[in-house]
């Protein structure tokens, strides 16, 4: 579902790469659909009958990542009454999706590299190697090459993960897709509970002008909100403006809707903008992370990861 030439080229590349066992690194901002690309690579590949196992590398503390990836033997630690296979073993014969791989701590980068090189894994508390045959698909919103230069990510692991690298363009770079996505979202909403199923032209224009820092996830949030706010079967510009009042706006896009709460345009890097916007939204919702994440068009795990990464603290 795209009119964008760059997106169509990316989908053609996905179709070419999917039947192979090449490791793929998917780069893109939060909410662009990196997990959907990973699923397409698996579904249309030779491992489609095998498992697709996903791990969010930024959602687990370092002490649990090794346990989750490698599993453990009975008695490996207090409370380990039974042996448990890790995610690598469970993905045997299929695909392991490493979401937000840039958040993986250095110690686990080294451990994962050994598994990739040797094709086997040892559970915690065990000494018997177990063969693992998995295809790796990794995703990140970070610049891993810049992280390599800063010593934050292993270059040899990057080479292993990025045999093929795909960049998923943000929604603001393909405004022609907004109308298609809105049409799809409204049809889905209408099928579920008969919400508003049409959009005024000026309301669609406003959506196409928005910067969409939360990308497709944010668009879905705004469309759902506008449909609920609509008094009749048609979503008006006023409905969209009220829904966008809960959304972030990136600077530098002509005609974009003003940021919630008014005020001067934010300045600085995208990360600085995102940090300030998240901090403001957390204060607005009394640090309720579920409500904050929903208003920003991201999931709670992603929000928590960003709070930690940006060092945002409650005042």
Explained architecture:
By secondary structure, this protein is of the alpha/beta class. The chain folds into three domains: 5-169, Rossmann fold (3-Layer(aba) Sandwich); 173-265, Helicase, Ruva Protein, domain 3 (Orthogonal Bundle), CATH 1.10.8.60; 269-315, Arc Repressor Mutant, subunit A. It contains 14 helices and eleven strands. The strands form four sheets. A five-stranded parallel sheet has the order 2-5-8-1-9. A two-stranded antiparallel ribbon has the order 3-4. Strands 6-7 form a two-stranded antiparallel sheet. Helix 8 packs across helix 10 (215-229), helix 9 runs parallel beside helix 11 and helix 12 (270-284) packs across helix 13. Residues 248-269 have low confidence and may be disordered.
Mean pLDDT, to the nearest integer, reads: 83
Strand content: 5-15%
Give me the CATH superfamily of the largest domain: P-loop containing nucleotide triphosphate hydrolases
Order of helices and strands: HEHEHEEHEHEEEHHEHEHHEHHHH
Tell me the CATH topology of the largest domain. Answer: Rossmann fold
In CATH, the architecture of the largest domain is 3-Layer(aba) Sandwich
- Percent helix, as a range, is 40-55%
Biggest sheet record: 5 strands, parallel
User: Helix count, per DSSP?
Assistant: 14
What is the radius of gyration?
Answer: 21 Å
- Count the E strands: 11
**What class do helices, strands and sheet pairing give?**
alpha/beta
Number of structurally distinct domains = 3
Measure the end-to-end span.
43 Å
The CATH class assignment of the largest domain is Alpha Beta
In what order do the strands lie side by side in the largest sheet?
Answer: 2-5-8-1-9
> Which overall shape is indicated by the principal axes computed on the Cα atoms?
globular
Low-confidence stretches: 248-269
């Amino acid at each position: 579902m795209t009119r964008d030439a760059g997106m169509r080229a990316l989908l053609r590349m996905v179709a070419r790469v999917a039947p192979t066992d090449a490791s793929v690194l998917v780069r893109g901002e939060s909410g662009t659909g990196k997990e959907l690309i990973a699923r397409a690579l698996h579904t249309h590949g030779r491992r489609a009958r095998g498992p697709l196992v996903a791990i969010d590398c930024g959602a687990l503390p370092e002490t649990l990542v090794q346990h989750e990836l490698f599993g453990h033997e009975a008695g490996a630690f207090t409370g380990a009454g039974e042996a448990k296979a890790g995610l690598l073993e469970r993905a045997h014969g299929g695909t392991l999706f490493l979401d937000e791989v840039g958040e993986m701590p250095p110690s686990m980068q080294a451990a994962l590299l050994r598994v990739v090189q040797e094709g086997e894994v040892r559970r915690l508390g065990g000494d018997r190697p177990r063969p693992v045959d998995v295809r790796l698909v990794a995703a990140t919103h970070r610049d891993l090459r810049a992280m390599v230069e800063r010593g934050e990510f292993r270059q040899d692991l990057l080479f292993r993960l990025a045999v093929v690298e795909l960049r998923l363009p943000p929604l603001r770079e393909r405004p022609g897709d907004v109308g298609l996505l809105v049409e799809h979202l409204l049809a889905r909403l209408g099928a579920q509970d008969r919400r508003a199923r049409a959009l005024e032209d000026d309301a669609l224009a406003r959506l196409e002008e928005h910067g969409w820092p939360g990308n497709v996830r944010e668009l879905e949030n705004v469309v759902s909100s506008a449909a609920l706010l609509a008094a009749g079967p048609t979503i008006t510009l006023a409905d969209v403006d009220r829904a966008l009042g809960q959304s972030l706006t990136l600077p530098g896009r002509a005609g974009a809707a003003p940021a919630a709460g008014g005020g001067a345009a934010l300045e600085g890097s995208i990360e600085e903008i995102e940090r300030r916007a998240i901090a403001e939204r957390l204060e607005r919702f009394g640090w309720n992370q579920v409500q904050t994440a929903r208003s920003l068009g991201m999931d709670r795990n992603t929000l928590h990861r960003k709070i930690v990464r940006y060092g945002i603290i409650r005042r």
